[in-house]
Amino acid sequence: MALISIYLVLGVFAGLVAGLFGVGGGLIIVPALTILFERYGIASGSYVHLAIGTSLATIVVTSISSMRAHHRHGAVQWDVFRQLTPGIVIGALVGAVIADFLPTAILRVVFAFFELVVAIQIGFNLMASPHRHLPRSRVMAGVGTVVGVISSVVGIGGGTMTVPFLVWCNVSIRKAVATSSACGLPISIAGAAGFVFTGWGEPTLPAGSTGYLYWPAFAGIAAASVVFAPLGARLAHTLPVAMLQRVFAVFLALLGLRMLIG
Q1: pTM value?
Q2: For residue 134, what is the DSSP state?
């Protein structure tokens, strides 16, 4: 019962973050689940893989909720979404295979460094200035592939890469965040499917798992995040997001350091 309560609280934070910043919440979910799984002896040999696979599955629900909220504001650039999606799906599947080959300790360090880089990016608002227009569809598919691979390996919705890229291509920040929320859906579906497949038959996984997807954690996080993602999206259109980004960056840095030192 205590773990279910923690999963629900985690889902609240993940939903708010998804709506506010256009990320799928994986930057919070992965380290939190890693710590929980390690502490409670869940999937002792592959707890990081299980945390990432479960995170991607929860982002499916969060992305749908956040995407619908942003769509109601007319902010999702659906033409951009369609151009990025083919590469995203391929990249996310490839990323799941890459992650499966990485030992738990290495995967943990990879995530930690990625999270620290994102914390610096968000904290110092290192957003690329608009310098160009959106490239051709072939290049967009290539960008989607890179985003899909990295997102799947670390269990996120891709917003930390998609948003800066779109802003660099002269898309407004609010439309970039909204479109990023939509892009989190194909990333999470393909990535979660890849982790289910690569984790199938793994002997260290606990009961209640399907591959690297732990259903009890998924249920608690998804139930809360689907309620709070629309709230986060509404707040993104009203609150001073720049100030919230600095607080969020400090929080991410602490989580990244926790993952790094174990």
Answers
A1: 0.92
A2: -
